[in-house]
């Protein structure tokens, strides 16, 4: 049988809530999500939590564990040594629905506002030819499991609800970079400038490259270095941006 | 009468994995107002967990590949029990479906000449799996998700509303299908977030709900896999076939206990990984079955040469179909030649340089590093069988994906027949695309055929569905709907449900699920016997009775206990189908292995077991009937050597073919 640990889980809804303490058994090799499931089965059957694959592939079980944005299924209990209690709270940037479940619809709205891939005209299915080295840049961004931890941690919107309307967040700025770097995306031919859209419609200028998004990415995608900064640099041709100038100077 | 949110659609697709999304895209492109209803957030469906790739005979790596070779491999993998027409359509259409994904924006790994790269996999003669590292499922789901978004952007441009003709109802669970005069009229469900009920009035429903793995304790499947579509189909009168065939993937993680069952992709073996026992022996050479004797290498030297020279050497036996490898691992562990935690060793570390492993198997590297503290570039993994896939499902017409109930369609894992008794790796993602599209097409044509005469939902059915959905709540603690506290009282006729609840011992849905999973794992698992399955049926009967007293606490807003209580009856229904069909089939074939009938029997190949559900009062039971397979079309029979067919077919089935 395993050891007993103290858990503090935020319980409540849109009207408010508080941390509730539980003493719960923990066994070798378990992750935080295992313990949350044990709480559901034994002490809190109606505890609300989102999860799906429990293998770090779907990005459903995002939460803040001892204040750090993490996937519950990929956070091993052995990395949270006693005697400190384990505190699990919902993502702070999104409105709480109930307990650990938040309303992440902001992300789906932003996803819709990014102009989709535009297939090259005149190239038939089966005739697409691309080199591995050319697809790899976008492939890195397509590793994204949409856990929204980067969105949650980004300080532009974390404590600034008012910025949500004009800022799409690292996940969707990265999506624009991904399409911009897609070898066969035909946006240019359609007269659409993805970089300009990133700047003017999705708030790229808000980002001041603190790399918080990169730090919390469970897929280890270099969001800032590989997606946001290159796009900022190219936008700088279109628009004066003192931050980029500073960044360039530092890099020399 | 209670007020319930109501929506009218032409086509309602239940499930937002590969099959559901492809079906929705097709129906929408044919001008049908389409709803996609899914239990999770959009983009989280189980398809995301597929790792290895999509099988399609594009011939990009070996130009000898074509649909006939793929068809043959698929039939062999399924031990010729497959619905041959489905296998034919699948093999023929898979390449188009993969190429189409590129027009949606997918980025597969490439060959040197810029085409889609293809990798080796168990049971596939040539490198055939289009892939993106070991996260192909993620690429598939994201690509289809983004195609849906692109269609919604078209609607926005045209109507000023993203959801004018195609809407995703995420975190919404369908609990009942509504029929009228034997035809689909709609569907009933609830929003997980609020617990409020929702009804769809629609003449066509496409089931794309995936599988049933959560009925087993050790599984690679996510919580969603509770057999919802299988059970919805049964309850509205459709038939399930092949339910005895459950695939145990040979390589799941075995340690630590909390991750037991999580998938270790077959690509590890496709890319050179080998299986060893505690005596450091590559034991698969001892397990090549007679039917495959001439297709697999008999020495390590030949097997190792095959990776570079596949034309002059036979394949390594680690790449036998999944059922064979899973049974072999099971036997090694039983013979005390297993690894410390009850599996065997899967080693890639001595076979490929660390850099190549990191490139080709990045998710596997992270999975083992982060969950088990194992560095797969330096040491072997411990693996064992895990419940992965159900070959059985709704009996459908191969061309239209139509079930026997008018207006009901099924595609993907929830449909039966395509994979016969055992599915080849990589054939699932292609199945989703090929039959997802056909289901969307079939539904659209059916809706057109109705003209204006659509079946109408009966209000009494809606009220009955609401009753059933709310029944797990106990009195006293229950169901105060935040916005409408009177909803419950209105939904429940005074007296009835309330009194029932008070005088019985309440059952905990979590504990019932655990008992069910243990029962299926222990008694209807990878190796089966009549005595154990009879015991399983007794226990299932008992569990079903106890499930009628399941009770949940709290209110309806995102209440996991309530959700599970409702999923439980689906798991119980499919578990009973599996156990009854497995008891009936007195042979061993593919994903059905009987210790008491260990041999494959030609007389069983042409027989399908068909499950239907019969309801009397509050209880319902599963009936298993038999049905003859449609004989394979002559031109398809001719694709095989006579000597091979004789291993599977009876003499009477091979007319005009003499020795």
Structure description:
- The complex is a heterodimer of chains A (252) and B (659).
- In chain A, the strands form two sheets. A five-stranded mixed β-sheet of chain A has the order 2-1-5-3-4. In chain A, strands 6-7 form a two-stranded antiparallel ribbon.
- Chain A has 252 residues and is α+β, with helices and mostly antiparallel strands.
- In chain A, helix 6 (169-181) crosses helix 9 and helix 7 crosses helix 9.
- Chain A has ten helices and seven strands.
- In chain B, strand 19 (607-616) and strand 20 (619-628) form a beta hairpin.
- In chain B, strands 7-3-2-11-18 form a five-stranded parallel β-sheet, with helices on both faces.
- The radius of gyration of chain B is 24 Å and the shape is globular.
- Chain B is 36% helix and 16% strand.
- Chain B is an alpha/beta fold and 659 residues long.
- Residues 476-503 of chain B have low confidence and may be disordered.
- In chain B, helix 3 (84-104) crosses helix 11, helix 5 (228-235) packs across helix 17 (560-584) and helix 15 (509-523) packs antiparallel against helix 16.
- The chains are: A alpha+beta (252), B alpha/beta (659).
- Chains A and B meet through helix 1, helix 2 and helix 3 of A and helix 3, helix 4, helix 10, helix 15 and helix 17 of B.
Features:
heterodimer; A: about 250 residues; alpha+beta; two-stranded antiparallel ribbon; 7 strands; elongated; B: about 650 residues; alpha/beta; 5-stranded parallel β-sheet; 4-stranded mixed β-sheet; 20 strands; about 35% helix; about 15% strand
Q: Unreliable stretches of chain A, pLDDT < 50, 5 or more residues?
A: none
Looking across the biggest beta sheet of chain B, what order are the strands in? 7-3-2-11-18
According to DSSP, the number of beta strands of chain B is: 20
Order of helices and strands of chain A: EEHEEEEEHHHHHHHHH
Distance between the termini of chain A: 57 Å
Strand content of chain A: 15-25%
Reported for the largest beta sheet of chain A, the result is: 5 strands, mixed
Strand order of the largest sheet of chain A: 2-1-5-3-4
**Class by helix and strand content of chain A?**
alpha+beta
- Strand pairing plus helix content of chain B: what structural class? alpha/beta
Distance between the termini of chain B: 71 Å
E-strand count of chain A: 7
Strand proportion of chain B: 15-25%
Low-confidence stretches of chain B: 476-503
């Amino acid at each position: 049988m395993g050891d007993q640990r103290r858990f503090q889980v935020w319980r409540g809804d849109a009207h408010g809530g508080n941390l509730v303490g539980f003493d719960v058994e923990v066994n070798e090799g378990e992750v935080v999500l295992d313990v949350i499931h044990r709480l559901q089965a034994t002490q809190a059957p109606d505890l609300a939590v989102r999860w799906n694959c429990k293998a770090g592939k779907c990005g459903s079980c995002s939460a803040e564990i001892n204040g750090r944005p993490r996937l519950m299924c990929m956070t091993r209990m052995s990395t949270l040594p006693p005697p400190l209690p384990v505190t699990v709270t919902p993502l702070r940037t999104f409105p709480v629905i109930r307990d650990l479940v938040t309303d992440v619809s902001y992300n789906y709205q932003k996803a819709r506002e990014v102009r989709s891939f535009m297939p090259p005209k005149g190239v038939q299915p089966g005739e697409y030819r691309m080199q591995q080295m050319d697809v790899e840049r976008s492939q890195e961004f397509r590793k994204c499991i949409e856990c929204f931890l980067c969105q949650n941690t980004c300080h532009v919107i974390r404590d600034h609800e008012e910025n949500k309307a004009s800022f799409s967040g690292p996940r969707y700025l990265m999506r624009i970079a991904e399409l911009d770097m897609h070898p066969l995306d035909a946006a240019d031919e359609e007269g659409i400038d993805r970089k300009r859209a990133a700047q003017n419609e999705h708030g790229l200028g808000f980002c001041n490259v603190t790399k918080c998004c990169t730090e919390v990415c469970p897929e280890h995608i270099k969001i800032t270095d590989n997606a946001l900064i290159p796009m900022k640099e190219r936008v700088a041709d279109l628009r004066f941006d003192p931050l980029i100038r500073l960044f360039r100077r530092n890099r020399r | 009468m209670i007020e319930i949110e109501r929506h009218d659609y032409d086509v309602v697709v239940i499930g937002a994995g590969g099959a559901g999304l492809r079906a929705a895209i097709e129906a929408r492109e044919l001008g049908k107002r389409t709803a996609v209803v899914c239990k999770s957030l959009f983009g989280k469906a189980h398809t995301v967990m597929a790792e290895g790739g999509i099988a399609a005979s594009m011939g990009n790596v070996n130009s000898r590949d074509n649909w006939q070779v793929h068809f043959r491999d698929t039939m062999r993998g399924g031990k010729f029990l497959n619905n041959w027409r489905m296998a034919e359509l699948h093999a023929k259409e898979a390449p188009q479906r993969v190429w189409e994904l590129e027009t949606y924006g997918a980025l597969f790994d490439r060959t040197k000449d810029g085409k889609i790269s293809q990798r080796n996999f168990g049971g596939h003669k040539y490198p055939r799996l289009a892939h993106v590292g070991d996260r192909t499922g993620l690429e598939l789901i994201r690509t289809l998700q983004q195609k849906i978004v692109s269609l919604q952007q078209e609607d926005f441009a045209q109507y000023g509303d993203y959801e004018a003709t195609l809407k995703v109802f995420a975190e919404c669970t369908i609990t009942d299908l509504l029929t009228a005069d034997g035809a689909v009229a709609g569907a009933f469900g609830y929003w997980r977030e609020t617990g409020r009920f929702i009804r769809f009035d629609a003449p066509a429903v496409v089931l794309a709900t995936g599988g049933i793995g959560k009925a087993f304790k050790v599984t690679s499947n996510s919580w969603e896999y509770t057999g919802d579509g299988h059970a919805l189909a049964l309850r509205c009168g459709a038939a399930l076939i092949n339910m005895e065939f459950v695939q145990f993937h040979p390589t799941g993680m075995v340690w630590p206990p909390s991750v037991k069952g999580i998938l270790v992709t077959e690509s590890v073996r496709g890319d050179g990984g080998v299986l060893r026992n505690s005596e450091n022996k590559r034991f698969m050479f001892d397990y090549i079955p007679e039917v495959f004797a001439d297709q697999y290498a008999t020495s390590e030297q030949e097997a190792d040469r095959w990776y570079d020279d596949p034309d002059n050497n036979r394949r390594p036996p680690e790449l036998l179909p999944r059922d064979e490898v899973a049974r072999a691992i099971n036997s090694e562990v039983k013979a005390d030649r297993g690894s410390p935690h009850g599996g065997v060793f899967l080693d890639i570390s001595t076979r490929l340089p660390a850099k190549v492993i990191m490139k080709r198997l990045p998710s596997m590297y992270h999975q083992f590093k982060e969950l088990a503290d194992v560095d797969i570039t330096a040491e072997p993994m411990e693996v064992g069988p895990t419940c992965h896939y159900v070959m059985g499902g709704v009996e459908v017409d191969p061309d239209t994906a139509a079930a026997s109930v008018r207006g009901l369609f099924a595609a993907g894992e929830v449909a039966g027949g395509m994979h016969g008794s055992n599915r080849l790796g990589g054939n699932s993602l292609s199945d989703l695309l090929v039959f997802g599209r056909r289901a969307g097409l079939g539904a659209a044509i059916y809706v057109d055929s109705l003209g204006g005469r659509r079946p109408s939902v009966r209000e009494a059915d809606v009220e009955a569905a609401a009753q059933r959905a709310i029944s797990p709540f106990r009195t006293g603690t229950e169901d105060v709907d935040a916005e409408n506290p009177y909803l419950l009282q209105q939904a429940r006729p005074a007296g009835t449900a309330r009194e029932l609840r008070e005088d019985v011992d309440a059952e905990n849905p979590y504990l019932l699920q655990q008992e069910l999973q243990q029962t299926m794992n222990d008694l209807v698992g990878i190796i089966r016997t009549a005595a154990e399955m009879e015991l399983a049926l007794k226990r299932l009967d008992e569990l079903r009775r106890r499930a009628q007293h399941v009770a949940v606490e709290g209110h309806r807003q995102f209440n996991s206990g309530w959700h599970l209580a409702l999923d439980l009856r689906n798991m119980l229904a499919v578990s009973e189908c599996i156990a009854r069909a497995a008891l009936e089939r007195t042979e061993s074939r593919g994903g059905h292995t009987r210790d008491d009938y260990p041999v494959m029997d030609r007389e069983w190949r042409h027989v399908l077991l068909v499950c239907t559900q019969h309801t009397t009062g509050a209880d319902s039971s599963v009936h298993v009937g038999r049905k003859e397979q449609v004989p394979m079309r002559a031109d398809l029979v001719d694709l095989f050597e006579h000597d091979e067919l004789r291993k599977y077919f009876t003499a009477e089935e091979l007319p005009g073919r003499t020795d």
